[in-house]
Design goal:
By secondary structure, this protein is an alpha+beta fold. The protein is 35% helix and 21% strand. It is built from 11 helices and 15 strands. The strands form 4 sheets. The protein has a 6-stranded mixed sheet with strand order 1-2-3-8-4-7. It has a 5-stranded antiparallel sheet with strand order 11-10-9-13-14. Strands 5-6 form a two-stranded antiparallel ribbon. Helix 8 crosses helix 11 and helix 9 runs antiparallel to helix 11. It is globular and about 50 Å long. The N and C termini lie far apart (44 Å).
Length: 375
């Protein structure tokens, strides 16, 4: 069954991102992740799904594109979104997933860029919404200058308390067309972080510490936020495993040594599969990331694992769907997901061999997960 688009005021600020550019959006239910992007990134999604299905399996589910037009007439974000949906839902286009299912997606979305209208939209969001996905937009990073966006399935949707880690891949972070200033700046990041020795750095994390948790960098939902400075300043090669343990183990949230090791083993299996796929393909992906998500509520995590152990075919990467077919649309609790994300500087490069730059980071992550899961 094709998933319908949300019906009203669906385009809101996305608050679960732990790294990346500002300006990402979501629908009210949190099922969709709308990311501003370049035409090159859209082309990479299209070509991956068409010609590289093994790799596409580890990409976020791609549902289509939206055009983000500037709209100077004073319309608020919610009003523009409602008008868009009313106009386009009847004639929504169908996009085919790499797994054969379809989803409906419209072709255009209009966003207000006027500061006064943005203030109105923020006030309206505060008044109308109280679910965790809805927050007042906080501008902390640069926005991509583009009028295009990809619509993806939100990998963090469906978890009770999603713990999320973004691992930025590569020793070299800049693409061939990067300006000299950017090359110098990114080379400095490499030299000063774990990119140099390990081929990756932790770009950001959010880890649930339990109901009512208090302390430095813990938000009102009980998530400890590790921002970009954590991976740039606090984490070095000497303590990188400790950083991963901070993500995988959270005793105050019920994620004890046993559960954390099981999650590490599950992550390792998928990272090794990603490694195998990349070793057999010819591509170049600069500043792509591995996105790790798992259930951060220890009770929910243990329950999900127990259910999966009773029905082994349902233990799959993030999908949470049974293997008996979709007739009853029965879903299982989610346990974990591993995705490769951020393809602004990615392309398939026949004749140039595997992407050893990204693979350096993938192999390092695999070694760390193996150490933790087998300890």
């Amino acid at each position: 069954m094709a998933k319908p688009l949300p019906t009203h005021a669906d385009l809101i600020d996305y608050n679960q991102a732990v790294a990346g550019h500002d300006g990402t959006l979501s629908d009210v239910d949190g099922e969709l992740f709308i990311k501003p992007c370049t035409p090159a990134e859209i082309a990479f999604y299209d070509s991956s799904i068409a010609d590289h299905p093994d790799f596409a399996e580890f990409m976020p589910t791609y549902m289509g594109t939206l055009t983000l037009d500037h709209h100077p007439n004073g319309t608020t974000i919610e009003e523009a979104g409602a008008a868009l949906l009313a106009k386009h839902i009847p004639a929504a286009e169908h996009y085919e997933h790499h797994n054969g299912t379809t989803i409906e997606a419209s072709g255009v979305a209009i966003f207000e860029r006027n500061e006064e209208a943005l203030d109105k939209a923020e006030a309206l969001m505060i008044a109308k919404h109280s679910i965790p996905e809805v927050v007042v937009p906080v501008k902390t990073t640069k926005k991509i200058v583009t009028d295009q966006a990809v619509v993806l399935e939100n990998a963090a949707h469906g978890f009770v308390k999603p713990n999320i880690m973004d691992v930025k891949l590569g020793v070299r972070l800049w693409a061939d067309d990067a300006k000299e200033e950017k090359r110098i700046r990114f080379n400095k990041v490499t030299a000063e972080t774990t990119h140099k020795d390990l081929g990756f750095r932790i770009a950001g994390m959010r880890v649930w510490h339990g109901e009512g948790a208090k302390g430095p960098d813990i938000d009102k939902e009980g998530f400890k936020i590790y921002d970009k400075n954590y991976g740039r300043v606090s984490v070095q090669t000497s303590n990188i495993e400790e950083a991963f343990r901070n993500f995988l183990f959270s005793p105050t949230a019920g994620v004890d040594e046993e559960l954390g090791k099981l999650v590490s083993q599950a992550f390792l299996a998928d990272v090794k599969r990603i490694q195998t796929v990349l070793e057999g393909q010819e591509s170049r992906m600069f500043s792509a990331s591995l996105l790790f998500v798992f259930e951060g509520d220890g009770v929910a995590l243990r329950t999900a694992m127990e259910e999966a152990s009773r029905s082994p075919p349902t233990l799959v990467n993030g999908d949470g769907e049974t293997s008996e077919g979709d007739e009853d649309e029965v879903t299982e609790p989610k346990i974990y997901a591993v995705k490769v994300i951020d393809f602004a500087h990615a392309e398939w490069t026949p004749g140039r061999g595997p992407d050893e730059n990204s693979l350096t980071g993938v192999r390092s992550v695999a070694r760390i997960l193996e150490n933790i899961g087998g300890a």
